[in-house]
Amino acid sequence: MSKKETHTDNFFERVYExxxxxxxxKVTSYGAIAKALGATRSARMVGWAMNxxxxxxxxxxHRVVNRKGLLSGKHHFEGTNLMQQLLENExxxxxxxxxxxxxxxxxxxxx
Length: 111
Description:
By secondary structure, the protein is mainly alpha-helical. It is built from five helices and four strands; from the N terminus they run αβααβαββα. α1 (3-19) crosses α3 and α2 (30-36) packs across α3. The radius of gyration is 13 Å and the shape is globular.
């Protein structure tokens, strides 16, 4: 494994550690996770980590949305509306692929 792959794998694991902490009924954004990791400009890399996590049952990737509350990663979930269904099962209302009350449901990682 190259040094770059090790760094990427480590970053992904750090992302997963934060995502595992998101409480049920709450969401956070790619950018908030990047900021919590001290990598403010790495929101896209957080997205790559989320894309790679879909076989990890202990990583609630459905709780990570974009900075406006849009379900921008929904096409990475099986089925047409699985991400939305998972959020709605936790009491989060979604309309037109966006969380209706984003401020109410937003969780800020504080590291």
